[in-house]
Specification:
FAS1 domain; 11 helices; elongated; alpha+beta; Jelly Rolls; 27% strand; 3 domains; 17% helix
Length: 530
C-alpha cells in the first residue's frame, strides 16, 4: 500500500524517535498523588501485567516496544488478552495497524474532556465518550502512570476504521480503482530534521485537492466518496472511453492517453467535500474537481453507506449512476468572446475591443457582463477562437451575439452577414474544415431588428455535429513527464472562425462589417443548451 502522507508509523518504526524530540510533552495530570514522577516505563508496565501478555507480544513483533521504552511521552490503550484471542499473529500488516490504532502521543488521561480530539499514531482521531469509554470501547482499568506516559487497559480492541485509500487498497473488488490511482504514485525525498538528510515518501498528485480528487488518505480531511467496484469501473470505462479517442502517431500512446483521461473523467465526479448523509436533501452537489451533479438523490441511489475514518463511503457495486448524469463528465464547453487566451485576429484589417456593460444597458443577459466587438472596413474582419476540451462525441454548436442596440438606438438597426469555419482533427490526424456562409441564410444574419433587440441573439451554427477525435487536455496529464507530446503550450486542434461576409457594394448600404460575440457554446447533443 502506498499513501501520500501516512509516514508517521514508518518513521517511528525505523527508530526515528528523535524526529519528535522538539515536541513539548504534556505532563499535566501525570504526577502521582505525592507529586513524584513514576519510575517505571510504559513497556515495563505492559511486560509485568499478565493480562496484557498478548498485546506485549504484538508490540515486540512490530518493534513498537522500542518506541514505548524511549523518553517521549505516549498514551497506550492496551487490549486485554481475551480481546486478542482471534488475532492472526502472523499477519504483520494487521498487527502494525492494531498498534498504531492503540497508541497516541502525549499524556491522555481519562480526565481529558469528552469528545476532545486525540490523534493516534496512524493519524486517526478518537476521543473519550460521555460514559468514560474510549472510541466506544469500555476501559478495564485506566490512568496507570508511567515515567513516559499513561497506560489504559481496554476490554476489547478499538475497531479499525479505514480511510478512503486504506479501504480501497485493502479490498480486491476495488483493485481496478486502486490500480488506476496508484499508477500516479511517485517517490520523493523529503528533508528530515535539521541534519540535512532526507527520507523517502510516496506522493500522488491525483490525491490533491487542486489538480486531483482530494486528500483521500488524510485523516484531517473529510469527504464523501462513491467507490465503484471492478464491475462498475469496467462498465463506466467502456461507456465513457469512446469519448476520449485521440490521435497520436504512436497508437500505444493514444491508448494510454484515452485510458488515463477516461479514468479521470470517472473519478472527477466521485468525491465531494464533507460528510453527505442525505444526498437527496440537496438540490445539487459540486465534486472536489469542480463538476456539478444535478439530482443528487438519483445520483447516489442504490449505493450502500460505509463509515470511513475521514468521511462517508458509498459503495457502487455492479454499476454507477454516473452514466445517467452525463453532464458531469461531458459538460457544455463555453468560450467567452472576451477571453484573450482563446482568440486570434483573422487579418490586419480586424480591430477587436473588449466591451463591458452594466445593469443600466438596454441589452440584458450578457455573460460575464462583457463581450468582444469585432470590426473592420478595408477587409472582412474576423476572429478565430480556440475551442478547448472537445470530446469525441456529438455537439450542438451555438454562438451568442450581442445585438447592436448595446451601443444605443442609433445603431439598433444595423446588421451584418457572417461566415463560420470550424477546424476539426480527423482520425488520421489531419484537420478538416467545415463552413457555413450566410449570404442567403437568414440564421446567419445578426442584427437588423427595427424594433430593437434587448436580448442575446443565439445562432445555432451546427446541430448534432460529431467530432471524431477528442481534443481534451487535462491538468494531471501535463504532469506526466513521459508524455512530452502534450504540453501546456499546445493549442487545441479545434477552432471556430467567425468573420463578416460583406462585399464592398453592400458595405454601409445593406450590411456593416461589425459584430459582437458574447460567447461560444458547444452543448452535448440531447442536453439543454442553456
Amino acid at each position: 500500500m502506498k499513501y501520500r502522507k501516512n509516514i508517521a508509523y514508518a518513521l517511528w518504526l525505523a527508530g526515528l524517535g528523535g524526529f519528535f524530540a522538539a515536541c513539548n510533552d504534556d505532563w499535566d495530570n501525570h504526577y502521582g498523588s505525592n507529586g513524584s514522577v513514576p519510575e517505571t516505563g510504559l513497556m515495563e508496565l505492559i511486560r509485568s501485567d499478565g493480562d496484557l501478555s498478548a498485546f506485549c507480544l504484538i508490540l515486540e513483533k512490530t518493534g513498537a516496544d522500542t518506541l514505548l521504552s524511549a523518553s517521549q511521552t505516549y498514551t497506550v490503550w492496551a487490549p486485554v488478552n481475551g480481546a486478542l484471542s482471534d488475532v492472526d499473529m502472523g499477519d504483520m500488516d494487521l498487527l502494525r495497524r492494531m498498534v498504531s490504532n492503540h497508541i497516541a502521543r502525549y499524556s491522555n488521561p481519562t480526565s481529558t474532556g469528552t469528545g476532545e480530539a486525540i490523534y493516534m499514531l496512524n493519524g486517526k482521531v478518537m476521543s473519550y465518550d460521555a460514559d468514560g469509554a474510549f472510541a466506544g470501547v469500555r476501559l478495564a482499568d485506566g490512568d496507570i502512570l508511567a515515567r513516559n506516559g499513561v497506560l489504559h487497559k481496554l476490554s476489547d480492541t478499538i475497531p479499525y476504521r479505514y480511510n478512503f485509500m486504506e479501504y480501497i487498497s485493502s479490498q480486491e473488488k476495488y483493485s481496478s480503482l486502486y490500480g488506476f490511482i496508484d499508477q500516479f504514485t511517485e517517490t520523493r525525498l523529503v528533508p528530515r530534521g535539521t541534519a540535512g538528510d532526507s527520507v523517502e515518501v510516496d506522493y500522488n498528485p491525483l490525491l490533491e485537492s487542486y489538480y486531483g480528487i482530494g486528500l483521500l488518505d488524510d485523516e484531517d480531511s473529510v469527504y464523501t466518496m462513491i467507490l465503484p467496484d471492478n464491475e462498475a469501473w469496467a462498465q463506466a470505462s467502456d461507456a465513457i472511453g469512446r469519448f476520449f479517442n485521440v490521435y497520436r502517431s504512436n497508437q500505444a500512446e493514444a491508448d494510454s492517453i484515452r485510458e488515463v483521461q477516461t479514468g479521470q473523467a470517472i473519478l472527477s465526479a466521485l468525491t465531494f467535500g464533507g460528510r453527505i448523509t442525505d444526498p437527496g436533501a440537496r438540490d445539487s452537489l459540486v465534486s472536489v474537481p469542480g463538476y456539478v451533479v444535478h439530482r443528487p438523490g438519483d445520483y447516489f441511489a442504490g449505493y450502500r453507506q460505509v463509515e470511513a475514518s475521514n468521511g462517508l463511503i458509498y459503495e457502487a457495486n455492479g454499476s454507477m449512476n454516473l452514466l445517467e448524469d452525463t453532464c458531469v463528465w461531458n459538460g457544455t464547453i463555453v468560450v467567452e468572446g472576451e477571453d484573450l487566451d482563446r482568440r486570434r485576429s483573422l487579418n490586419s484589417g480586424t480591430s477587436v475591443y473588449v466591451r463591458d456593460v452594466d445593469g443600466a444597458n438596454a441589452v440584458k443577459g450578457i455573460s460575464e457582463e462583457s463581450y468582444l466587438e469585432v470590426s473592420g472596413s478595408s477587409l472582412n474582419p474576423g476572429v478565430t477562437f480556440d475551442i478547448p476540451e472537445v470530446l469525441s462525441g456529438t455537439y450542438d454548436i451555438y454562438v451568442d451575439f450581442v445585438p447592436p442596440r448595446v451601443d444605443g438606438t442609433s445603431r439598433a438597426t444595423e446588421k451584418t452577414c457572417l461566415t463560420f469555419r470550424m477546424g476539426v482533427q480527423q482520425e488520421n490526424g489531419r484537420l478538416r474544415y467545415e463552413m457555413r456562409q450566410g449570404k442567403d441564410d437568414e440564421e446567419l444574419i445578426v442584427g437588423g431588428d427595427s424594433v430593437g433587440d434587448t436580448g442575446i441573439k443565439t445562432v445555432k451554427v451546427w446541430e448534432n455535429y460529431h467530432f471524431p477525435t477528442s481534443d481534451f487536455r487535462d491538468p494531471l496529464w501535463y504532469l506526466d513527464e513521459e508524455n512530452t507530446s502534450v504540453t501546456n503550450t499546445t493549442r487545441p486542434n479545434t477552432t471556430l472562425e467567425i468573420r463578416t461576409n460583406v462585399s464592398n457594394s453592400e458595405l454601409n448600404v445593406k450590411y456593416v462589417r461589425r459584430f459582437r460575440v458574447d460567447r461560444i457554446r458547444l452543448v452535448p447533443s440531447g442536453q439543454k443548451k442553456d
